[in-house]
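Reading is simple: each integer encodes one residue's backbone shape. The lines below illustrate:
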Amino acid sequence: MIGIFDSGVGGLSIYKACKTKLPKTSFVYFSDHGHFPYGEKQPEEIGEFAVHITQFLIRQGAQLIVVACNAATISSIRALRTAFSIPFVGTEPAIKPASLATKTKKIAVLLTNAASAGFAYQELVSKWNQDVQIFSLPMPKLVQIVEENTLHEKVSEQYILDQINQIKQMGIDTIVLGCTHFIFLKAFLRKHFQHDFTILDPTEGVSNQVKRLYDKLSDKCDVTADQFFTSGDSTSISEFIKRWLKMNVEVQSVVLDE
């Protein structure tokens, strides 16, 4: 079984990609809505959440865990790999492929405040900003738009269009979706800016790595159906899954030990 967690519904984009690669494998997904949003919290606090969630997912039978959140990956994945013996797959902004794809040598990374402040993110930027300009642009409001499903409201649409048009005026030709929530905005961005930007997200790279590591596990212990848990409101998660993933699932609310 493969465990996946995020602060909210953003990680469901990673779940969808992984499920496509491993359709006969069981997954357990945890949405930490009780502590949402991670993007505005301190790295130490996010790290504590990640440990408790990991312990819970392991109790459910997870043999590999995907940290489907950029802020949580940047804040805690090194500590998780030290503390637990199972393999972890993190989610980080696709800066490398963006650096190779850009023609103007200017890329924008859309992310949260927590992710942009993380040491691991700064290391990643330092590695690739020798030949390209990397503009790190925190956009926490986009997370709320996805979580609250207001994308198709005029106010939200205009906000996104204004923000992306400003990026366009900077001479940037490549956008990195540095938060898994933003992946749900990809179709909207492509519809309005398909001729202006290359838009990259981590789903392909993460799902490939998950499949590679999971295929190596010698003792796979799966259940028949995927499981979904949240530390917040189960109804809102269920409705999101039905709307975006076209799945009718039961989401269980749980309180983790802290």
